Amino acid sequence: QVQLVASGGGLVQPGGSLRLSCAASGFRFTDYDMSWYRQASGKERELVARVRSSFGLAGGQTNYADSVKGRFTISRDNAKNTTYLQMNTLKPEDTAVYFCHGRRRLSSILIGPDYWGEGTLVTVSS
Q: Does 57 have pLDDT greater than 90?
């Protein structure tokens, strides 16, 4: 029932842009922190960006890995249950499979199971 469907990956030249989308269903989207992770070949999965659930004093706050700060922007559209990752000034080092992730937030903690989407491949190469 719970689904996270990622799309928007592809091949792009260095300096180019892509926008990833993650369509969610089967849970109360507004109560969940939504994140993008990535995993490059031979590397561990790493957190790229996170946007908080939409409630509370810090609702909608975003966080980014240092490697993408200033280039990537995470956002959410609660009316569409969709999370986006706008990726600009892409570098070969950004090449990876990108995964959408959701987990429920209750006050200051995250609770319950992790929900993962299947990855979408981003390749940055000339």
A: no
